[in-house]
Amino acid sequence: MKHLKRETDILNFALIISVISLTTSLLVRAPFGFFVALRLTVFGTLLLGVVRWFSIRKNSHLPMFFLAVLYNPVFKVSFGSRIWRTVDSLVALYFVTLLLLTFIRRARYSKERSKTRPVDLE
């Protein structure tokens, strides 16, 4: 169980970095190199998510797989800047939703776990 928590923590960190990068790309005019780094960052996060959710055999890895194909650095998908801004904002919202769901599940799990722990009377 500990290794799943560590993998989730790594994925959450990657999601936070990607959300910050995607939000920055929406707010600031950046050079081309920033968008190359953004593509690599988001692709890496999506790849981590696909591997993570595939390892626990949930079907929630499918949206991440399709987004990884969209952001892959080898076979680039080219859109206009307006479309990429829309895609970036939707992906940032998707990542924020995943983070919130993870934190809600973790809070519920710890709350349920604290109810089932035996009370130490000493």
3D architecture notes:
This protein starts with a helix and ends in a 6-residue tail after the last helix. It has one domain (2-114). The protein has helices spanning 2-27, 32-55, 61-71, 81-116. With 122 residues, it is mainly alpha-helical. Helices cover 80% and strands 0% of the residues.
Summarize the structure.
80% of the residues lie in helices and 0% in strands. It has 122 residues and is an all-alpha fold.
How would the blueprint of this fold be written?
Layout: H1 2-27, H2 32-55, H3 61-71, H4 81-116
Number of helices: 4
**Biggest beta-sheet profile:** none
Distance between the termini: 29 Å
Which word captures the global form? elongated
Low-confidence stretches: none
* SS-derived structural category: mainly alpha
Mean residue pLDDT: 81
Compute the number of strand runs. 0
Quaternary structure type: single chain
Strand content: under 5%
Write the element-wise H/E pattern from the N-terminal end onward.
HHHH
Count of separate structural domains: 1
| Radius of gyration computed on alpha carbons | 17 Å
Helix content: over 70%
